[in-house]
Every structure is written in C-alpha cells, then in structure tokens.
Design goal:
The chain is of the alpha/beta class. A seven-stranded parallel sheet has the order 3-2-1-4-5-6-7, with helices on both faces. Helix 1 packs across helix 8, helix 3 runs parallel beside helix 4 and helix 4 runs parallel beside helix 5. It binds NADPH dihydro-nicotinamide-adenine-dinucleotide phosphate. The site of NADPH dihydro-nicotinamide-adenine-dinucleotide phosphate (NDP) has 30 residues, from helix 1, strand 2, strand 5 and helix 6.
C-alpha cells in the first residue's frame, strides 16, 4: 500500500463541514497534514470539528465560519490560516451545492446565483490562497466538479452550464499557474451520498422508506452502472490523489468518480 506523509503540510478544504469536504479533511489529517475547513453554518462546523477531533485527537485543525461568496470572509479565512499555520500547500475548492431546475423554471436571478456560486467558489478562495500556495514546495489546487460539466442534464440546466464553464476555468488556471509549479485539477462526480442528498431524502422519500431503499431505487432509475451512489470517501480519495504528490505530473486534468455514468469514451 502506498503511504504518504503530509506532516508539516497544510490543506485547506472549503465546505469541509459535511459530505465530501469532511471526508477529504479526514484523509488529510490521517496523512499527518494540518487542515483548515470552512463553512457558513457555525453549528455544522463545530460538529465537524468535534467528529474530526474524536477520530484524530492530535489533529491540528482550524474550523472557520466563511461564506466563499463573500470576499471579506474569504480574505479573513486566508488570514486565519496564515496566522495559525503560516502556509498553504493544498487548496480544495469544494464548497457548494447543486440546483435542480429546468430552463422553463429558472429565473434570471436563479441563473445569476448559480453562476456566481459555481465560479466564485473557485475564484475567491484561489485568489486569496495563491500568495501562500506560491511559497509552497509542491502546491496544488483541486476543484470538486460534476459530470454534468460534460454530460448536461435538462433538469439541472443552470448547474450543468456553470459546471462546463468551471471545467474550462480549471484548464485555464492550470495553464496560467503551471510556470509557477502550481498544479490545478478537478474531479467530476456523479451522485455521492452527502448532506444535500440527505436533505432531498427527507423531503422526497415515501413515508417509511429507508435511506438505503431510497438511494437504491434512485440508482436504478438513474441507470448508474455500479448500481449505487458513491460514498464521500470515494470522492475524497480522488481529491487526495490530485492534491498530493501522488499526482505530481498531472495538471489541467480531471478524474471521473461517477460509478460509470459517463457515456463518452
Ligand atoms: P454537503 O451539503 O454535504 O456539503 C457541502 C459543504 O459546503 C458544507 O460544508 C456546506 O456548509 C458548504 N458550503 C455550501 N455553500 C457554501 C458557501 N457558500 N460557503 C462556504 N461553504 C459552503 O454536499 P456535498 O458534499 O455533496 O457537496 C460538496 C461539493 O460537491 C459541492 O460543491 C457540490 O455541489 C458538489 N457535488 C456534489 C454531488 C453529490 O451528488 N453529492 C454531485 C455533484 C457535485 P454550510 O452549508 O454550513 O455552508
């Protein structure tokens, strides 16, 4: 088994208080890194901090309230990381959520909100952490993207469109930052069990239907070849690979974590 020691390195995970971000923070801590997570909701952040500290009692962990859409919040988060750790080696742009809407029911304001979320959740943290990444020995940025970027769904028209745009953004960033040795990659996920799917389960499941039955039925209806939702850890492992030197010769690229849903060759 390949083992990687990240002692002395710092990983920043936006949206680290739940789902994929929380699982990713756990992997970094397990490998010995210091970790900073952020989210908007203070209670969720505290719960995440408590669960990570219970699993990793020696964890060097910073949990900060920060809305990645607020420039001042993001600047304050980067300042907290600088003051606590003095460096950032890896940035995972993960914060966000999807929007279920068709063209017919997406108003202008909803389009603006969705485009702002998808673009600025990458742009703001990247800009704020770049000065520290530039000082790191093997810096990297990884963005959580969706298979919708390549395989749009009409029922998620705005998210699909924004995801395609940010896939292009990641490629451009990779090109611009390669001369500075900063690698930039993304993962394209299908459906991963997480907070947002738990919330949908609570509103959409039949009375008495279990989480397992509900997700299995959805996986069947959505023709997921591997027959199930992904687990946050499975997305986190791909993020970990792209963030660390395990992928030292990879930039401007993406990994598919969709359970076989991608139809292209
Ligand atoms: P969760 O809802 O479990 O986690 C989302 C995390 O992001 C939470 O920590 C949340 O905390 C945080 N967050 C959301 N908005 C902001 C914001 N504006 N500023 C700071 N933090 C924020 O969902 P997932 O783990 O599934 O989502 C992770 C990423 O994966 C998202 O970008 C999502 O769009 C993407 N994705 C997920 C898919 C899936 O099937 N799960 C499919 C495709 C993409 P808080 O709410 O407290 O701010």
């Amino acid at each position: 088994m390949i083992q990687i020691d990240l002692t002395g390195q710092v990983a920043v995970v936006t949206g680290g208080s739940s789902g994929i971000g929380l699982a990713t923070a756990g992997l970094f801590l397990q490998a010995g890194a210091s970790v900073a997570i952020c989210g908007r909701n203070a209670e969720r952040l505290e719960a995440a901090k408590a669960s990570l500290t219970a699993r990793f009692p020696e964890a060097d962990l910073l949990a900060a309230c920060c809305d990645v859409l607020e420039a001042d919040d993001v600047a304050a988060f980067a300042a907290q990381v600088a003051s606590r750790f003095g460096r950032t080696d890896m940035l995972v742009n993960n914060a966000g959520q999807g929007r279920v809407s068709t063209f017919a029911d997406t108003a202008d304001e909803a389009w603006r909100e969705e485009l702002e979320l998808k673009y600025f959740s990458i742009i703001r943290p990247t800009r704020a952490f770049l000065p520290m990444l530039r000082e790191a020995k093997a810096p990297s940025i990884v963005c959580v993207n969706s298979l919708l970027a390549l395989q749009p769904e009409p029922h998620m028209v705005a998210t699909s469109s924004a995801r395609a745009g940010t896939l292009s953004l990641v490629k451009s960033l990779a090109g611009e930052l390669a001369p500075e040795r900063i690698r930039v990659n993304s993962i394209l996920i299908g459906i991963v069990e997480s907070g947002q799917w738990r919330r949908r389960f609570e509103t959409q499941a039949q009375p008495g239907q279990s989480w397992e039955d509900w997700t299995a039925e959805l996986a069947r209806n959505k023709n997921i070849p591997l027959g199930r939702f992904g687990r946050p850890e499975e997305a986190a492992q791909a993020l970990f690979y792209l963030a660390t030197n395990l992928s030292s010769y990879t930039t401007g690229s993406h990994i598919d974590v969709s359970g076989g849903v991608a139809r292209h060759v």
